[in-house]
Amino acid sequence: MKKCLASIILVFVLAGCSSTVEPGTKALVGSWEWVESSGGLAGTTTSPSSTASSRQIVITATTIQYYLDGSLLQTDSYSIQTKKSIFGGDKQMLVYESGRPSQSFEVDDNKLFLNDECNDCYQSEYDRK
Predict the structure, then answer these.
(1) Does 7 map to a domain?
(2) Dihedral sign from CA coordinates of 22, 25, 85, 56
(3) What domain of life is recorded for the organism (predicted)?
(4) Blockwise average pLDDT, block size 10, the chain, 129 residues
(5) 71 to each of 31, 52, 58, 85, how far by Cα in Å?
């Protein structure tokens, strides 16, 4: 009887544990290579070939590092929150501690799409490295 009771208590204890990793974080974590960005007032598209530069982002569970041509430009802390999107509906967003505008995101296989949550801003596409 004691073993049975202990087993039941253990099941409830384990079921009550929660992960500290936000939903969506696992898919985001990694190194990403910039493919292109499009948008802005003129609706332009830029890419590594049109800018003669390479951009990378390295995402951990709590930070994003931005690189330009291999040099670290900035490190920003973030959290993932579900918020109303200007594109409609509720979306998971990267909310930056620095106050930088939030970005909704989507990970599709080995592609990352970051959408600036502002009018006339950009959508950027990245490939997983």
Answers:
(1) no
(2) positive
(3) Bacteria
(4) 47 42 76 97 96 98 98 97 94 95 94 94 96
(5) 14, 15, 12, 32
